[in-house]
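agent: user wants the structure for Chromosomal replication initiator protein DnaA from Hymenobacter lutimineralis. delegating to structure tool.
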Amino acid sequence: VWANCLRVIRSSIGEQSFRTWFEPIVPVALHDNVLVIQVPSQFFYEWLEEHYVEELKRGIYQELGPEGRLEYSIVVDQGNSQNKPRTVNIPTARKMAAPSAASTPAASLAAGALTASARNVAAAAAAPVAPAQLRNPFEASKVIDRNYLQSQLNNSYSFENYIEGDCNRLARSAGLAVANKPGTTSFNPLMIYGGVGLGKTHLVQAIGNHIKASNTDKFVLYVSAEKFTNQFIESLRANAVQDFANFYLLVDILILDDVQFLSGKDKTQEMFFHIFNHLHQAGKQIVMTSDRPPRDLVGLEDRLLSRFKWGLTADLQSPDFETRMAIIQNKMQQDGIDIPPQVVEYLAYSVDTNVRELEGVLISLIAQSSLNRREIDLEMAKQALRHIIEDVEAEVNLDFIQKTVAEFFSISVDLLKAKTRKKEVVTARQVAMYFAKEHTNHSLKSIGYHFGGRDHSTVIHSVQTVSDLIDSDKQFRSQVQELRKKFTK
Ligand code: ADP
Ligand code: MG
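agent: tool returned. relaying tokens verbatim.
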């Protein structure tokens, strides 16, 4: 019976859709005109109901007549593919059919049989999904030969040129484990998080390249969350959401970079959630990065966040001195350039924010050296760094300090300069003077002048008071530290 149904269905939908959505279905039982089919996931069920209910009804009608009914048996998503599948039976949710369905002969199918669980499913499936089968902006999804699928990987990122250090040891070794056995370790999903320029993209690209090199049959896809979002929006616009989903369900290893970008984009998140579930259940590897730990990903749905906990979360820290040295040396070797050891040391010592910045300084040195036909030396390095440091200092002037401190204490800049002696204002004023002393070249007299014409002894007293408070008051100390970050980059 199912084979005949399939024949009916096949004649009315595309080859790719048929393969994706109907080949994985297993017919499991037929009794009293009820055909039970097993589908691999909840998402699968929702998708069928959303998009292929008409085709299914037509097939069932032809085979079993108006009394025919269809039930789904879903391999329940346990969050662990090793678990033995449990199945539930859900009658087809008639509600899912297009309005015209009521007048078709097959409408009697499952009429009125909307159970509570099916209703929940129906509600959940009321995704942002438009009727499909229109134009397709995703050429790749029509390509059945998987060799034509593009991974979007940059092969200059590898494990070989990813320097290991304390800052990245866990993330790197988890990445290597995943790269060697995608989808089969417990690191699924693997979530790498860390600040800007610390090597997230490099690491996940290295994972992708490694997998691709040893598993040519696997479709590895790297995509930034931003691109994913734009593609999805485009597919909505073009009425081709189904093609979008079809394409992503072909992926064997999905690498989604900068997942924080999905914050607040509910519909895109929902689509990603479905794709995630589907791939995860099928034992496909998922790798993600984020610029902050999952608990700080505001604007991401809880159900999505909870998925991230299924696997492993590993962070990247700022590299320590030795790692920075090694990164510079590695870069030099790669680019075939020579920099005296004391310059390497000077750079590694001075640029401690992130790897991207370190590379930036290196590149500008190389450029200068070739432009001026001069070997890179310490003097040149100092010159290059002075440029960067001045950039920071130029921003941190008195106005900036006053504005930042006032904002931090939720008062106005005018109040900072006013005569008032209210305690909160006095504290804010003293802190602002303290930072003015620390971060500008203004004399005590000049600082006093800019804070409502106070004299230099007031400034001395303020700086002293703040120093004392930093020593004695833990909460105050952390406030000052928080503020200092804004002045030191
Ligand atoms: P993120 O994605 O975290 O912002 P990237 O992966 O783009 O950072 O890294 C920034 C630059 O630093 C890249 O050129 C990358 O190759 C380099 N980089 C980062 N970490 C390392 C490392 N451990 N070893 C070598 N290069 C690194
Ligand atoms: Mg990145």
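agent: one observation worth passing along. The chain is about 50% helix and 10% strand.
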